[in-house]
Design a protein that fits this description.
The structure holds two protein chains of two kinds. Chain A is an all-beta fold. Chain A is built from no helices and 25 strands. In chain A, the strands form six sheets. In chain A, strands 1, 17, 18, 20, 21, 22 and 25 form a seven-stranded antiparallel sheet that branches. A five-stranded antiparallel sheet of chain A has the order 5-7-12-9-10, with no helix packed on it. Chain A has a five-stranded mixed sheet with strand order 6-16-13-8-11, with no helix packed on it. Chain B is built from one helix and twelve strands, in the order H-E-E-E-E-E-E-E-E-E-E-E-E. The chains are: A mainly beta, B mainly beta.
Chain lengths: ~350, ~160
């Protein structure tokens, strides 16, 4: 009796994907309250003083003139990168997207120009910029609902409101210096949003071009903003090992003769890499000349049923014919070693 | 005695007439309000100065200086002079900015119904508890002249507010 390493699955390397940037956002409703970021452009601010005084026994009141100033439009914008973390990608990936939020922090509605730039310094590779899309507001990518940005039909954003924007890139096969892409390499892609009415040095005035015919004045954000988002190359290295043990035999030998029971042990482990091996599934056909011993699947010392109806992720002869199937879910280097056992009887 | 009486009778109608005139014209006190912004001006020698200008337009964040000037253009003392001004909607009073020589300054947080010094003013929370006021709570400002304003007497009061 002894352990024999039957087959060793050595170093299965593949590039995994951590997560799609599927983050649900509550639709942000523009707020026009007294506490909004800025009093609306075009608002008239009026003030009148009143004096009361007595002359002898008479009380008299007197109003002043009314002083009025008009609120001009201030041009301000912010751009933030919305993905929860670096977006995992692999070499050659097409249509990988970063999510950004563009907020009109001025006090008048504005049209915005959107521009992408992926040839930035400070990263290991340059993504190839494709197209920009305006999200329909739910923060989830949907090609049917999230329409391509059209510079001839720029998006309007109301004061204190925002839009979500997808920037689409293709991941190259090499680093900027043409060497091979490595696990952990970062590539940046940036979104710039600019107020159509104007941008530039804070205080620059665009006479009469503000909301309602007031002047527009560039605010402290200079009327334009940009921020980069990151793609990161991720890989996982998975080690799968299998061996067998003859656990009973009609004779007390170690040779599997008819009637012998053999226990197979499969271990699955992510040994390195930043990525996630998603939906890891182990399938192992029952060897010719043997018969599966019903109810013998054990995952991490817990006995699992043979049927698929028990939703324990394990079955025999259902997902795959005459094979055991074990679902291990998503695995990373943090996932403990997974041990699968099942038994067969030699025919 | 009769001589004195005659003089008195002559005097009476004139007094009556002048007080009626005052009530009708209400012109004893001239009141003027001006809104200004401070700007930095560089003169021809490159020297920077802060000047106050009346702005054609303002933007959120701007600090506006409201100056109210008063003059007694009548011939009698104006007594118990109170000048009030609401903090405009969309603006927040700038803490500590109200000023006026020879005046006592009080504030209202109830749109001008009552006035008091800030330390006595309270705001009711939604749960019924009270909290001390902050500058943003002030709805009106009142300057009370400590002395009667004599004819030709003049002065001004001011405060600053930030456009939200």
């Amino acid at each position: 009796m002894g352990n024999k390493a039957l087959r060793g699955y050595v170093m299965k390397k593949f590039l995994g994907i951590i997560f799609e940037a599927l983050i649900a956002f509550a639709l942000i409703i523009p707020v026009n309250s007294a506490f909004a970021i800025g009093t609306a452009a075009g608002t008239n601010i009026s003030s009148k003083a009143t004096a009361s005084y007595t002359l002898g026994t008479n009380t008299i009141t007197k109003d002043s003139n009314i002083s009025t100033v008009k609120v001009a439009e201030i041009l301000n914008v912010t751009v933030t990168w919305q993905d929860a973390g670096n977006v995992s990608a692999e070499a050659g990936d097409t249509n990988k997207k970063l999510l950004f939020k563009v907020t009109n922090t001025g006090n008048g509605p504005e049209l915005f120009t959107l521009t992408g730039l992926s040839t930035l310094v400070g990263d290991q590779f340059d993504p190839t910029l494709n197209l920009i899309y305006i999200d329909n507001g739910d923060g989830l990518w949907n090609a049917a609902q999230d329409l391509q940005y059209d510079s001839s039909n720029k998006p309007n954003i109301n004061p204190d409101a925002n839009i979500l924007v997808w920037v689409d890139n293709t991941i190259p096969n090499t680093r900027s210096d043409s060497s091979a892409l490595q696990d952990g390499d970062v590539g940046k892609s940036q979104l710039t949003a600019t107020c159509v009415t104007g941008s530039g040095t804070a205080g620059t005035i665009f006479a009469g071009q503000g909301q309602g015919g007031t002047d527009a004045v560039v605010g402290t954000t200079t009327g334009t903003a940009n921020t980069p988002g990151n793609y990161i190359i991720t890989s996982v290295v998975v080690e799968i090992l299998k061996n067998q043990t003859v656990i009973s035999s009609p004779t007390f030998g170690s040779q599997p003769i008819p009637g012998s029971e053999i226990e197979y042990t499969i271990t699955v482990h992510v040994t390195s890499g930043n990525g996630t091996a998603k939906n890891m599934t182990i399938k192992d056909p029952i060897p010719d000349g043997t018969t599966y011993k019903p109810g013998s699947i054990i995952l991490n010392t817990v006995s699992k049923g043979d049927s698929s109806g028990d939703s324990d992720g394990c079955d025999f002869n259902i997902t795959n014919t005459n094979a055991i199937t074990v679902q291990l879910g998503n695995m990373t280097t943090a996932t403990p070693l997974q041990t699968i056992k099942f038994n067969v009887i030699v025919n | 005695m009769g001589y004195l009486l005659k003089g008195f009778l002559t005097l009476l109608p004139i007094c009556f007439l002048s007080s009626v005139l005052s009530a009708q014209t209400q012109g004893n006190l001239e009141l003027k309000i001006v809104a200004q912004k401070e700007v930095v001006v560089t003169d021809s020698q490159g020297k920077k100065q802060i000047k106050r200008v009346e702005p054609a337009k303002v933007v959120p964040g701007d600090e506006i200086i409201y100056t109210i000037s008063y003059t007694n253009i009548g011939s009698e003392d104006a007594e118990n002079v109170n000048i009030t001004n609401p903090v405009p909607e969309h603006m927040a009073y700038k803490e500590g900015s109200a000023a006026g020589i020879g005046t006592a300054i009080t504030f209202s947080v109830d749109k001008g119904i009552t006035y008091d010094v800030p330390v006595n003013l309270k705001i009711k929370n939604s749960d019924g508890t009270v909290r001390p006021v902050v500058a943003e709570d002030f709805t009106n400002i009142r300057w009370t002249l400590s002395k009667p304003l004599q004819p030709k007497g003049t002065g001004y009061v001011e405060y600053r507010a930030i456009l939200k």
